[in-house]
Amino acid sequence: MLVTSEVKLENIILHKVGNKSRDEDIRFSKEPLKLDNFVKELLLKYFLSPFKSEEYFNLYHESDINLNEVYSFVSKIFAEPESLHEQSMNLARHLYEQSTHAKIKEGEFYVTYLSDCVVDGEAVDAVGLFKSESRETYLKVYPNGDTFDIDSEDGVNINKLDKGCLIFNTDGEHGYLVATVDNLSKSNEALYWKDDFLKLKSRQDSYFHTQKIMSLCKSFVEERLPEEFDVSRAEQANLLHKSMDFMKEKEVFDLNEFQNEVIKQPDLIESFQNYKSTYETERNFEIKPEFDIHDSAVKKQTRYMKSIIKLDKSFHIYVHGNSQNIEKGYDEERGMHFYQLFFKEES
Questions:
Q1: What is the pLDDT of residue 164?
Q2: Is the model's pLDDT at 177 over the cut of 60?
Q3: What integer is the mean pLDDT of 152-174?
Q4: N or C: which end of the chain has fewer CB within 10 A?
Q5: Mean pLDDT throughout 146-154?
Q6: pLDDT at position 34, please?
Q7: Name one GO cellular component term (predicted).
Q8: Residues 94 and 217 occupy one common structural domain
Q9: Contact 178, 168 (CB under 8 A)
Q10: 93-to-22, 36, 164 alpha-carbon distances in Å
Q11: Diameter of the chain measured on Cα atoms
Q12: Are 197 and 248 in the same domain?
């Protein structure tokens, strides 16, 4: 968990980075920004408030982590904080080289040195990299004699950070601990920040394993189960709901316990094990058979694991358990399927 209440903005450099494919330039600052305390606090809010997720990453490279450009430049900053300006220009050049897609906008690129970032109870320094691309129009109202005048100005909304990452000075041998946000990437062409510039991979911690096992369960129930077994949508919904309940009620995930308590039937367990093996191989990761369940990951994944039976375009049935109280049938006279729902009281 990240605590930002005591973070101090020690130094900040700002460069302007354009789109290389449009022959836009990089404009370098010759010295750090000189800011009063009020503006520093505004910038800290702008930079840090979007970092709410507890999902973390590592910088990586396929062959040697030292060949990851961001890792190399940031490591030099941690070793010699006074080199921030020199390395900020290297980081800006690297970002410029990745800014080739037509939809990437010119923007301000901030390189900051932060102290007293508390991550998992440990106070560490961090290098923050942020880019603002969006502009908004603001009205400026000011008095003029007995009346008022209004002008418009373009500016950056400090409540809407476009792209950012925090690289913490811990776990350096594995590519540092990294948090990132990207509020503009809605499609693959804009993933240059995470994939091309930073080169990140998911950190295989309790958040990662919790997220992956829940995604695996959802995929197994919705895709593999109906292929191999004669199951109703109500039974699928019930199994999905039982999986979510297990993750919410337990503190530690144990694969054998999960299979025995949730899946139960030997043939289903065998199918699940085979599917898990294929799922991991295709995605090039392994879910541990035992790990601490991460509550934030459970809450996030639960949003995507709704137990819903969709009937044509007319009805949605939300199932929260007790699938034995749902019966499916077929009406010969109407030529339509139906569900019967049994309940004790209406609320």
A1: 95
A2: yes
A3: 90
A4: C
A5: 85
A6: 93
A7: nucleoid
A8: no
A9: yes
A10: 15, 28, 17
A11: 85
A12: no
- For residue 232, being part of any structural domain is answered with yes
Mean of the pLDDT values across residues 206-221? Answer: 94
Residue 119 in contact with residue 170, Cβ under 8 Å? Answer: yes
d(CA 32, CA 40): 13
Clarify whether residues 193 and 77 are in a common domain: yes
For 104, other C-beta atoms within 10 Å of its C-beta total 24
267 and 300 both lie in a single domain: yes
Burial 156-167 (b: 16+ CB within 10 A, else e): beeeebbbbbbb
How many independent structural domains does the chain possess? Answer: 2
Report the residue count for the chain: 347
102 pLDDT higher than 80: yes
- Residue 142 carries which side chain, given as an amino acid letter? Y
Give me the DSSP letters along 185-233: --SGGGTIIIIIII-EEE--SHHHHHHHHHHHHHHIIIIIHHHHS---H
The yes-or-no verdict on residue 69 having pLDDT over 80 is: yes
Q: Do residues 75 and 90 lie in contact, with contact meaning Cβ atoms separated by under 8 Å?
A: no
Residue 1 tokens read as 């968990």
